[in-house]
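can u pls check wat happens w/ adenosine-5'-triphosphate
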Amino acid sequence: MIAISSGKGGVGKSTVTANLAVMLARQGLRVGLVDADLYGPSIPGMLGVPSGQPPAMTSTKKVIPTEAHGVKVISMGMLTADDKPAVMRGPMVTKYLQMFVTQVDWGELDVLFLDLPPGTGDIQLTLAQAFPLAGAVVVSTPQDVSLKIARRGLRMMEQVKVPILGIIENMSGFTCPSCGEVTHIFHQGGGRTIAESMGVPFLGAIPLDPAIVDSGDSGEPLVNAAPDSPAAQAYASIADALSVDMDRAGGLQIPFAWDLTTGEGKPAPASQGSADRPLALDYDATGLTIRWPNDHIQTIDARDLRLSCRCASCRDEISGKNLLEPENVPMDVVPTKIWSVGNYALGIAFSDGHGSGIYTFPALREIESVEAEDV
Ligand SMILES: Nc1ncnc2c1ncn2[C@@H]1O[C@H](COP(=O)(O)OP(=O)(O)OP(=O)(O)O)[C@@H](O)[C@H]1O
């Protein structure tokens, strides 16, 4: 699941999402697209999906997404008429979007794009935390003001531990249709500079091209309407760069809810991933074994895991002091359930009835370093 975000509106985020989704579908990937911009859904228009026609339901009461240009799509724009605004407060937005992800019959997908509403406010923050995102892409235009706001977007994603898959600079230079000369109407190269300064990948630049507007308005994305144009080529090379990044992000398959008493729901292992996300989990009498990238294997004894809980009732939030008395923890305590929390932590419930512990990946790694020091 990949979020496409932008610090501010109108930078071309939805256009980029629609074209990347269609491009990846053309390359044979199974692609879904959630238009998470509930207040201003523009994806249906860009992909030629009629608005105001509620999608069909399966017999199990799941929504069947509309298919357009090889991409499965769901959008608020399909439920409301063009000129009817969705009037709702923030918490309702999150609820609707959770429905769009979990109550839709997506089938097997390789990638699900989430076209986020513009901005870095509460709604974006909640969404970034509510979904198990593999990563986020930030779209910006080359003007300084837009780039500064994009930087804010990057920082927000960093804070909620969503890996940044990269920055895209849109409307970067205008290619004259008659002589081919490139004019940089705005500054140029700012996206790459920000990417370099923040240590995140620069995925590419898309030129300012009137054909993008025409194709978006006609419901036929440019990568289909004019696949040989410089802008379509730019989308194609960004899609390639993104595929590489998607593979690199990898990690344990999320979301999952693993019942250790029955063995059900154990997360499927991954073969590769980024440095701070587990690749596989196992549990036996020796404890919880986590396989991290770079062949690093960590086994944490069940009771040590329980004693390391950092929830508010086990550790004082301000002083960091341990509130949990070891003598109150049974010697034979074991984890009973382990589930994914966003893409940054595990939730763990134990046989002593304690179930509010959230173990972030860095905190799990620290458990081992404490053990190593003790030894
Ligand atoms: N590279 C480009 N060249 C020319 N026009 C573009 C380009 N990218 C996007 N546009 C046009 O800019 C307008 C805004 O694009 P879009 O709706 O994708 O932006 P957005 O960031 O998703 O906006 P919103 O804030 O409404 O979500 C559209 O008319 C679109 O066709």
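The first helix runs from residue 13 to 26.
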